């Protein structure tokens, strides 16, 4: 009865893992996918900031240019060189430091996919283990999402208020991360609910088929009881 609902919860975990994968392969892996994008006011170029670096689209030299993949990068320094955006030392250091936490994107993606496999292929106990893995992934996603909004929120506000004409806004990878966070939660709750309900229904069915004697007590005796009578 609850199997279709259970598999729907598993499906939500699978979709969440795909969305987290999209965030993970943002710039510089795929140029156009970004956690935050800045359209520069002085020319037609754009900056796309991703999990492991950034790209310059329609650069002055022609074509797109991307950095190598690295854990953490200096967002504030990049914007200073591109648009002379002014940052306080505290806000710049905070934004740069928080980008190092983005390494948790692939971790959350992998754990969510593992929870999907466990919950989908295992029984009740295995599904509960999958729920635990999904909960860990959900907490990691919460941490990295809060970090991303904090780090790039600092940059976005400074860019949009410096009067340079550049416009900064959150990219598709950020919204994929937010959607994955929501789907993780509902998928985890649905799988947990179906596990508990299936376990209760299984116990009820076992009690219904168990033979009773005239006094309403189970007629099944333990081996220890039979040994004592003999």
TrEMBL record:
Keyword Ribosomal protein: no
Cleavable signal peptide: 1-27
Transmembrane feature ranges: 103-125, 132-155, 167-195
Superkingdom of origin: Eukaryota
Pfam annotation, one family: SUR7
CC annotations in GO: cell division site; growing cell tip; plasma membrane
Keyword line: Membrane, Signal, Transmembrane, Transmembrane helix
Keyword Transmembrane helix among record annotations: yes
Classification via PANTHER family: PALI-DOMAIN-CONTAINING PROTEIN, PROTEIN DCV1-RELATED
Listed name of the protein: Pali-domain-containing protein
Organism listed in the record: Gomphillus americanus
């Amino acid at each position: 009865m609850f199997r279709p609902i259970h598999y729907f919860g598993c499906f939500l975990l699978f979709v969440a893992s795909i969305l987290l994968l999209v965030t993970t392969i943002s710039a510089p892996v795929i140029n156009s996918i970004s956690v935050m994008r800045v359209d520069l006011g002085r020319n037609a170029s754009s900056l796309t900031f991703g999990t492991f670096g950034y790209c310059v689209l329609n650069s002055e030299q022609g074509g797109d240019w991307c950095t190598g993949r690295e854990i953490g990068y200096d967002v504030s320094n990049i914007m200073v060189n591109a648009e002379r955006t002014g940052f306080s030392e505290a806000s710049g250091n905070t934004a740069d430091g928080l980008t190092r936490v983005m390494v948790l994107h692939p971790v959350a993606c992998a754990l969510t996919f593992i929870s999907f496999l466990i919950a989908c292929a295992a029984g009740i106990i295995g599904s509960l283990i999958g729920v635990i893995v999904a909960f860990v992934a959900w907490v990691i996603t919460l941490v990295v999402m809060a970090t991303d909004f904090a780090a790039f929120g600092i940059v976005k506000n400074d860019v949009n208020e410096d009067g340079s004409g550049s416009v900064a806004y959150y990219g598709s990878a950020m919204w994929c991360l937010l959607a994955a966070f929501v789907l993780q939660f509902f998928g985890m709750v649905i799988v947990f609910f179906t596990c508990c309900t299936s376990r209760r229904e299984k116990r009820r069915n076992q009690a219904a088929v168990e033979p009773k004697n005239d006094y309403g007590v189970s007629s099944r005796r333990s081996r220890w009881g039979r040994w004592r009578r003999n």
